[in-house]
Specification:
- The protein has seven helices and six strands, in the order E-H-E-E-E-H-E-H-E-H-H-H-H.
- It has helices at 13-23, 61-69, 88-102, 119-127, 130-133, 140-147, 153-167; strands at 3-7, 29-33, 47-55, 58-59, 74-81, 106-114.
- Helices cover 42% and strands 22% of the residues.
- The longest helix is centred in the middle third of the chain and has 15 residues, at 88-102.
- By secondary structure, the chain is α/β, with parallel strands linked by helices.
- Strands 1, 2, 3, 4, 5 and 6 form a six-stranded mixed β-sheet that branches.
Amino acid sequence: MKTVMIYSSLSGNTKKVCEVAFEHLEQEKQLIRVEEKDTIDWTKVENVIIGYWVDKGTADAKTRKFLSKLQNKNLYFIGTLGESPTSFHGEKCFKNVTKLCEKENNFKGGILVRGKVSEDLKQKMDKFPLNIVHKFVPNMKQIVLDAEGHPNEEDFQRVIEFIETMVNPNL
């Protein structure tokens, strides 16, 4: 097996974008949840595409734990977040995950797309003042509203373009 796409998904956003991306991979491939990581013989894997959701400005905990043990792979990522990927926060998240990917692997590239905010976070935001849940984000409620309906067709097209231009040519 040459390529494994492995993902962590809280609200279903990351799963959706990874399934779309997976359909466009041109290589021997397998799609698994991060919880299934032990079912793979990683010595036979050359390329890994990590799907993750952004949590506190970086990849979620399950993805970070997986990345901390991954070595010597060609590595790509597809991340989802509630904020716009081109926002200051989105750019910060991209840089943070890039650093994680570069530690022990050959990082090739990544993409962030927008996804709706999880119901769990929405409930926390309703119970507590916003400055406790998300500090220094005065427009958080608007961000959450804007994220509804994502990932959408435009997000999926961006992921397909990433696979076709950045991933497939390097496999």
